[in-house]
Specification:
Elements: H1 6-13, H2 21-26, E1 30-31, E2 36-46, E3 56-60, E4 73-77, H3 80-91, E5 100-103, E6 108-109, E7 113-115, E8 126-128, E9 143-153, H4 164-172, H5 181-188, E10 193-197, E11 209-213, H6 223-238, E12 248-253, E13 262-267, E14 272-276, H7 283-293, E15 299-300, H8 329-334, E16 342-345, E17 353-358, E18 373-376, E19 384-388, E20 407-412, E21 423-429, E22 434-437, E23 446-455, E24 462-470, E25 479-480
Length: 502
C-alpha cells in the first residue's frame, strides 16, 4: 500500500526508530494491534575471516502496527525452544518465510522486536498468509527480473564512496565490468533469467540505482533498525510500497558498526538483500544472497559444515571482484532453469540397475537428451542428487572452486529438493570411483553410484553414471576404488580462494 501521508512519513523519518515512533518516545512496549505478523527469515553471510551467523527469525508488521508503513520487519523475541521450533518448521518446509503468518494474540512490540508470549505454541500458531496470495510469486527465477540497487547515506553523511554510475556497472555491467551479478545469473541460468536494472524511474541517478538518505546513523543502530529506515525512505522516494514493480531490491550501506560480522544478508523467499562496504560489488556474494531470495538454503561440504561445499555458490562463495560460481545438483534441481534436463530415479526397487549419460550445466545448451541433475528418491524428503560438475574453459562453471570434472553427490535435509533445505556434499567421484549408501532409505539395500567413465575430450563432456541396488555385501558409506578423502586435495577453508583487495 502507499504511505498514508507525507506528513506521517516525515515524522517517521525524523525518528531513530521510524517503525515504532510512539513506542520509542514513551520507552514502553505496546500491544500488537493486528495480533499477527508475517514470518520472515534472514540468512547472513559471514566475513571471510569470521564465522557464518545462524538463521535470524523476524516478523514483518502489518502497516497498522508500523504507522502505515509496509515492509517493516522486527526480530522475533522468543525463548530458545520457540525459536528452535520455528527454525525447524522453516527447514522442514512447513513454514515458508514471507508467506505464512504467526498468530500472536497478546504479543507486544517495541523499537527492536516482536515479543512472543512465553507459553505460545509455535506450530499451532502458524497460518497461511491469505493477503499475499496472488499478489506476486514469492520467488521469481525465470524471465525478465527487474532489480533496483539503493545507495544509502546516513544522517552523518556516511556513504560508500563509489559513484552511482560505478555501482550500476559493478552490479549490472552497464559500463565495462565483464563479471557482475547480471552476467553471473544469466550465464548460470543459460539466459532463462534476464536481469533488468531499474525501470527508467525518474528517481534513478544511474541505470538501476537510486540514492536515499536516512535520518539515523550507521554507527549506533542495529542492522534491523537501519534496514527498516532504508525501507521507509525508499518507499517515500518511490511513492509505493516495496517491492512494488521490482522483483528484487538491493541495499548498499557504507559499513557495519553494531551487531556485525556479516558481509551481506538476505531474506529467504523474498525481495530484499543488504550489503555492507565493498561486498555490494562482489558477484559471488551477490549471487549467494540472491540465491537466498530465490529460496535456496546453504550448501555444506564433506566435513559437515554449513558453508563448505565449494562446488556451489551457496557454500562460501568467491569474495573477489571477478569471480562467481553456479550451483550444485540439488540447487539446480530446485531452480527452474533446467526443468527439461532433470530426472527422478527411485533406486529402492528390487534389482534396480540403470546407467545414465550425464552432461554438466556448463554445457547444458548442447546436452542433447542427457540430464544435468538426477534426484534419487528416498521417500522421506532427504533425497540424494547426482550431477556432473563439468568445468570447461569458457562455460558458466569455469570459475568453480572444487570437484572440477567429477561426478558429485549431494543430499538434502528434507523437502525433496524442491524448496528451502540445507544440502551437504557427500562424494566427488573420478572415473572408476564409487559411493555406496548402505540401508538406503531404510530398505536394508545398498545403493551404489559409480562414475563408470568420464570423458572431457568430447563436446559436450560426459559422465557415464551407473546406479545399482542389490543385496550383496557392500562397502561402508564411503567412496571406493580408491576412496576420495573427506576433504578436497586442497582443502577449502572459510577463507575464499580469491580474497578481495582492500
Amino acid at each position: 500500500m502507499h504511505l498514508q501521508s507525507a506528513a506521517a512519513f516525515l515524522a517517521l523519518l525524523a525518528s531513530a526508530c521510524p517503525h515504532v515512533t510512539h513506542a520509542k518516545q514513551q520507552g514502553l512496549r505496546r500491544k500488537l494491534a493486528a495480533n499477527d505478523c508475517t514470518i520472515m527469515a534472514v540468512e547472513a553471510l559471514g566475513l571471510e575471516e569470521g564465522e557464518d551467523p545462524e538463521m535470524i527469525v523476524e516478523c514483518e508488521l502489518n502497516p497498522d502496527d508500523a504507522d502505515g508503513v509496509s515492509g517493516i520487519s522486527l526480530l522475533l523475541d522468543a525463548n530458545p525452544a520457540q525459536l528452535g521450533a520455528m527454525r525447524q518448521l522453516i527447514s522442514d518446509g512447513q513454514v515458508t518465510p514471507g508467506h505464512h503468518k504467526l498468530n500472536i494474540v497478546g504479543a507486544e512490540i517495541d523499537d527492536s522486536a516482536v515479543h512472543v508470549p512465553p507459553g505460545l505454541d509455535i506450530a499451532s500458531s502458524v497460518r497461511q498468509n491469505v493477503e499475499k496470495e496472488g499478489r506476486r510469486r514469492l520467488v521469481d527465477t525465470i524471465g525478465n527480473l527487474n532489480m533496483l540497487l539503493v545507495k544509502v547515506t546516513d544522517v552523518g553523511g556516511l556513504v560508500y564512496p563509489d559513484s552511482a554510475t560505478t555501482m550500476s556497472d559493478e552490479v549490472f555491467g552497464t559500463g565495462t565490468d565483464p563479471v557482475n551479478l547480471k552476467s553471473g545469473l544469466e550465464e548460470c541460468s543459460w539466459d532463462k533469467l534476464t536481469v533488468v536494472p531499474g525501470l527508467s524511474d525518474p528517481n534513478e541517478v544511474a541505470t538501476g540505482v537510486i540514492e536515499v538518505d536516512i535520518g539515523i546513523s550507521f554507527t549506533n543502530n542495529t542492522r534491523g533498525t537501519i534496514r527498516n529506515a532504508i525501507t521507509t525512505a525508499v518507499q517515500a522516494k518511490l511513492g509505493h510500497s516495496l517491492p512494488g514493480p521490482y522483483d528484487y531490491v538491493l541495499y548498499s550501506v557504507q559499513g557495519c558498526y553494531v551487531d556485525c560480522g556479516w558481509a551481506a544478508y538476505a531474506y529467504i523467499n523474498s525481495w530484499n538483500s543488504v550489503y555492507q562496504g565493498v561486498y555490494y560489488k562482489r558477484p559471488g556474494v551477490l549471487i549467494h544472497e540472491l540465491g537466498h531470495n530465490f529460496g535456496l538454503a546453504h550448501s555444506g561440504g564433506l566435513d559437515g559444515q554449513t558453508y563448505t561445499d565449494h562446488t556451489c555458490s551457496m557454500g562460501n562463495p568467491h569474495y573477489s571482484d571477478d569471480a562467481f560460481q553456479c550451483f550444485n545438483p540439488a540447487k539446480n534441481f530446485q531452480l527452474n532453469w533446467y526443468n527439461d534436463a532433470k530426472i527422478t530415479e527411485d533406486p529402492r526397487t528390487n534389482g534396480y540397475d540403470t546407467t545414465l549419460t550425464m552432461v554438466g550445466i556448463d554445457e547444458y545448451n548442447i546436452r542433447g537428451g542427457s540430464p544435468v541433475t538426477v534426484r534419487l528418491e528416498t521417500g522421506g524428503g532427504a533425497d540424494y542428487f547426482v550431477g556432473f560438475n563439468r568445468a570447461s574453459a569458457t562455460g558458466p562453471n569455469r570459475m568453480n572452486d572444487e570437484g572440477d570434472n567429477q561426478v558429485t553427490i549431494v543430499q538434502v535435509n528434507g523437502n525433496n529438493g524442491v524448496s528451502y533445505s540445507q544440502s551437504f556434499l557427500k562424494a566427488k567421484l573420478s572415473q572408476g570411483q564409487s559411493y555406496a549408501i548402505t540401508n538406503y532409505a531404510g530398505t536394508g539395500k545398498t545403493v551404489t553410484i559409480t562414475a563408470t567413465s568420464i570423458d572431457i575430450s568430447t563436446t559436450p563432456g560426459t559422465a557415464l553414471v551407473r546406479i545399482t541396488n542389490d543385496s550383496t555385501p557392500s562397502p561402508t558409506n564411503a567412496p571406493t576404488n580408491p576412496p576420495p578423502t573427506n576433504a578436497p586435495t586442497n582443502p577449502p577453508t572459510n577463507v575464499p580462494t580469491f580474497p578481495p583487495t582492500p
